[in-house]
Amino acid sequence: MAGGGPGAFIGPVHRMAAELDGKIRLVAGAFSRDPAKSAAAGRAWGLADDRAYPDVAAMIAAEAARPDGAELLAVVTPNHLHFEAAAAALKAGLHVMSDKPATLSLAEARELAGIVRGSGRLYGLTYVYTGYPMVREAREIVRRGDLGAVRKIVVEYSQGWLSEPIERSGNPQAAWRADPARAGAGGCIGDIGVHAFNIAEFVGGARVERLCADVAAVAPGRTLDDDCNVLLRFEGGARGVLIASQISAGARNGLRINVYGEKGGLGWSHERPNELTVDWLEGPSQTLHAGSPYLGAAARGATRLPTGHPEGFIEAFANLYGDFADAIAQGRANADMVPDINDGLRGMAFVETAVAASRDERGWVALEGEAACVR
Ligand SMILES: NC(=O)c1ccc[n+]([C@@H]2O[C@H](COP(=O)([O-])OP(=O)(O)OC[C@H]3O[C@@H](n4cnc5c(N)ncnc54)[C@H](O)[C@@H]3O)[C@@H](O)[C@H]2O)c1
Prior knowledge:
The protein is an alpha/beta fold. Helices cover 35% and strands 21% of the residues. It has 2 domains: 2-128, NAD(P)-binding Rossmann-like Domain (Rossmann fold), CATH 3.40.50; 132-305 and 340-366, Dihydrodipicolinate Reductase, domain 2 (2-Layer Sandwich). It has helices at 10-19, 35-44, 56-65, 82-91, 106-119, 133-144, 172-177, 180-183, 188-204, 297-300, 313-329, 341-359; strands at 2-3, 72-76, 95-98, 123-125, 150-158, 208-216, 227-234, 239-245, 254-261, 264-269, 275-280, 283-289, 364-366. The protein starts with a strand and ends in a 9-residue tail after the last strand.
């Protein structure tokens, strides 16, 4: 693991999720750039002293040289270190599971894509919402054509935790997210807008071709955006709206998606993740429940418990790790349901295109050039 030191948010989630099904075990880490904190994290997680490293490069070199060395690197540092850690690991023969966004910039993502393709190793990206069973069911319903042709996609990801400038009063998660050198060109859009963008393409089954973005820094004194409103046009003609905000005071982690076709629409909300509603133009509404035998294979394969027993965020991460571990064990060239470097490229293209187009007030622009993420 790179990152995930004392007080970190997502590193411990990765550890719990990776280990949940017994297919992956944490064996080493460079958990912090402070060697004492890295050692403390290693001790807390029961690692041998010599496998808590003072920096990522030293860890990769040492692990690659051990006969029992790590095979997979989890990248859970702030964004500016993703490229360096992932590239070094791939070059040393390790697989990589990185948190999003893939890199600090689109240029770095393009370079990383070349490294991934030349490495013969797997690269996964934890757009975690793709790991939820009812998101996978939604995707299957759309792909099966049950709704008819998709006409409209509405995706909203609203949080309120950055309503005040807490990056200036010592909140470590807010501090790097508000700093372009560590977060990248996007603030909110790079942090949660990319999740909304990814889930819209994943469930909607079509790529965004054009967008019209209003990306703003609302809280006084903030450099990077904290509120984003983007109109979307998908290949095939569907229209969409994407909202991502971190100044929606009172909102917690409000991700929801609605997809409307010719015959009906479906809706999923992260605050009730084990349900999926399907509303029909002509017919009664349905609520589908995770863990039920009537669901498709992708959703059924993504639960561990019978219906009515809630699973959530950690299990969704674990689904990505489980699929990834299976692909590694079977020597496959990709891990079917796990977002990959193509999704990473699209996310970075989305961030940079929307930020620049909004800044220059260019209205509708093309989202060009990156590989398909719709698999
Ligand atoms: N997929 C998701 O749902 C999700 C959720 C939260 C965060 N994230 C992503 O995860 C990453 C981490 O976010 P976070 O909220 O956990 O941040 P955080 O600030 O809580 O944790 C970052 C960790 O990285 C460590 N670190 C910093 N520099 C380092 C270095 N040079 N070497 C080793 N470790 C170093 C810090 O000590 C800290 O432990 C970000 O890229 C973020 O976008 C993804």
